[in-house]
Amino acid sequence: MSAVLTCKNIEVSFDGFKAVDGVDLELARGEVHFLIGPNGAGKTTLVDAVTGLAPYAGSVVKDGEELRGKKVHHIARKGIGRTFQTAAVFEHLTVAQNLDIAAGAGRSALSLLRRRRRLPAVVVDTMDRIGLRDAADTPAGTLAHGQKQWLEIGMLLVGDADVLLLDEPIAGMGHDERDTTGRLLHDIAADRAVAVVEHDMDFMRAFADRVTVLHAGAVLASGSVDEVAADPRVQEVYLGTAKEAADAARA
Amino acid sequence: MSTRLPGSERTPMTRFLDTRLGTWTGFAAAALVLFGLAPLVLSGFRLGLLAQFLCYAIVAVGIGLAWGRGGMLTLGQGVFFGMGAYLMAMHLKMADARFEGGPGAVPDFMELAGIRELPAYWAPFASPVFTVAAILVLPTAFAVLLGLAVFKRRVKGAYFAILSQALAGAFAILLIGQQSLGGFNGLSRFRYFFGFTLADPANQRMLYFIAAAVLLAVVAVSLQLRRSRYGELLVAVRDAEERVRFLGYDAANVKVVAYAAAALFAAVAGAVFVPIVGIISPASIGIVPSIMFLLGVAIGGRASLVGPVVGALVVAWAQTALSEQFPSAWTYAQGLLFILVIALLPGGLASAAALTKRFRTKPTPVEAAA
Fold first, then answer.
1. Structural domain spans, chain B
2. Are B299 and B314 contacting, i.e. CB atoms less than 8 angstroms apart?
3. Nearest Cβ partner of A88 from B232, B243, B251?
4. What is the CATH code of the structural domain delimited by A3-250?
5. How far apart are CA A126 and CA A129, in angstroms?
6. Are residues A121 and B370, on separate chains, in Cβ contact within 8 Å?
7. Where in chain A are the domains?
8. Which residue of A lies nearest to B365 if distances are taken between CA atoms?
9. Predicted ipTM?
10. Identity of the residue in A106, A121, A142 whose CB atom sits nearest the CB atom of B3
11. Which residues of B touch A89 (CB under 8 A)?
12. pLDDT digits (tens, 9 = 90+) for B290-349
């Protein structure tokens, strides 16, 4: 295992409140790495920090290069791609256009000013991979919820990202779609590092190679699914929230 | 669920116009009307009015690009229109003075104002080449700098609209204070245009042809931008700017290009406007004219290619026709029209044709991808 992305001692504060408080995280090629934790644990904030959206203290290094302080689009060009909790595809453009844009961040001004004569091979291949070849000319806004998430993942693949940070990719999906998504994640993780922020424990157990549990902005435990599940502190956090939920329901 | 911005729906007509043959047919038809039909049926006076309206249409094409495709509510295009117009007007005044008073003569309005010495910044505008270059470069460069300053800081939406409108207001006030630019009265009474006398109807007709040619050229440039990969990227920035950043693009640069193109179009329109109308003053470039530019685009359909042109022509014509007969009522009619279009037809007139199709489901054709 070799780490592609190394986060050291990440701290994110909002007006004095530490949303992320000293998190270390390593993402390795070939692994689907789940980030789990109760609401407010700092999972999404951590992703925001790595992708340049939230200022932080600490260090994020990819391929030997420090990313802290770089702009969002520079970080994206370094091969770090992310998705959002609510799918953010370009609704007025077709699936093919969405992917073509995602594939084109390195294009010259001249090629941008020309009309697209044919789709790049990588776009066509990716449409096959995410199962949207038949929807190539469909406006992305009319896709089903799950298809939008796949399109978003596809947009990261054509953009040549080798670190993928996916924020709740299966939220709102049906059972079959979840399975398809899980297999897709393993497929693309073959030569990439994939991190998944997720609440769904069944999905996590089925598809995680490695799990990091965040709680109150800090890493509570990290390891394989079994190791993490056996950790008493993790049990306490999750039982605690379950108990609170039960209490709340009773009240 | 709405799949396209109103005004860009597919109808058999727009689908045909999208093909290569359709594009040429469209341009040929427009050229036939502008260069053949209009000069044939319109009197010299009417043709002059149409030429003036075509200048507004050129501005509208730029607004359609920046606002309709790029989502930038450019409420201050009067700034760029005014820059182009004043740069051209300065050259015309200089040329007139040289022609009639010999070298060293100052333009007539300066003499009246008691300015005996030509201000240094006027001198280069004696050169036609310098003037044309300045019209093409200065407003565009200003738009690039302004755009970078604004869009890099992620100023957008209503804030951008207010900022650009305030700029138009400030620009007009600045000009009113400049006695060496004619102050409140602006620059007028031009006699020659690059050596041709403006009083000659044949030359006036030529000016109309220039405006028509510029309009067609600007529409062609806009069409190419829309159909290019850049055009798709611009729409992507309009719809989800943040997302575009996460794909590795600097969204600000994408916006600056469309903003600068719109500024260039407006500047060229202003430069052509001056010899046609014969006067440029702060009153034709401030906040109200800037809103007028926008009004036509909104009514015609901001996201479509031809909508802004048609809208600009209709609004300008209606203003001329109605304000003659009902000088006080026109302003209200204008406001009412704006409200009706925004409320009932947000895509403008261009979306009216597609309204009938809105409730029909249409099959999605799947083309061979590569």
1. 37-286
2. yes
3. B243
4. 3.40.50.300
5. 5
6. yes
7. 3-250
8. A137
9. 0.87
10. A142
11. 240, 243
12. 988 998 999 999 989 999 999 999 999 988 888 778 878 877 887 888 788 878 887 888
